[in-house]
Amino acid sequence: MATDLYDLTVPVFIRGLRNLSAILEKGAAYAEEKGIDPLTLTQARLTQDMAPLAAQVQYASDSAKGAVIRIGGLDPVPMPDTEQSFADLQERIGKTLAFLESVPRDRIDGREDAQVVLRTPRGDFSFTGRSHVLGFSMPNFHFHVTMAYALLRQAGVPLGKLDYLGGL
Amino acid sequence: MATDLYDLTVPVFIRGLRNLSAILEKGAAYAEEKGIDPLTLTQARLTQDMAPLAAQVQYASDSAKGAVIRIGGLDPVPMPDTEQSFADLQERIGKTLAFLESVPRDRIDGREDAQVVLRTPRGDFSFTGRSHVLGFSMPNFHFHVTMAYALLRQAGVPLGKLDYLGGL
């Protein structure tokens, strides 16, 4: 009855990234319709020293693939963060989805209590598989998808909560 | 090894609400320091037709308590959404935390496959306990905490990702 770690990660990230892809499609369509340079949207920021939309998408991708790689002990899947256009960002999401869909369930399930190390410029942080998902990866992933939504919503793109949730 | 439904809900919401409380404290301190009317922060919006900060906090509270009430078949815990000041919002978070801390684990665990109905002005939506958490409550809760962060961050409050995550 309890929930396997795979079900807490891969399908949640896949769903969130598909929703993000649909949100970005609405952003691109809005730019086209209003004659706005799409790069002004993909480079939009909430404030000067926050990351722009393109980086929020890259961080959402990194958050999803990084969690699964760290928990599963999988090989890194480098993505060089060069995306600028909406088409680039869709391609990034597509590559991330293809990777997530390739991850076998048995590499994730059972890793709840395994040590997971997050390496950052500020040092290494140690988690269990479960605490890494619940205390870091999941809130962090949703943060970046929400920021992407917020940036396009603030720019006037017609979006509602159901775009973020992907329906009920 | 797999994760119980209680652990997917109550402690995740408690942690997120404590982080939100700390973020709001920084917002109140910033208003004080800069001589800004605090209500201009609690009423800040990303755009005209989005909910203000105070409502984002109310929605985060509702998302957490509503999920637990629906999944556990518990009595409603009405909170009338009258909060305006930072102190009001802290009180709302405190009441929500007290409720969450009162929920017995055995009312949540084992409800993964139970039917859960979300009643909305647009109609009723049916989930299982598990799908309600993973596909609705968790992303929705993180959405509203992130929006509260985004509003204060955009208003100039010195916040970083670790305030949102509550440390690593």
UniProtKB/TrEMBL annotation, chains A, B:
Gene3D superfamilies: dinb family like domain. PANTHER family: BLL2446 PROTEIN, DUF1993 DOMAIN-CONTAINING PROTEIN. This is DUF1993 domain-containing protein. InterPro entries: DinB/YfiT-like, DUF1993. It holds the Pfam family DUF1993.
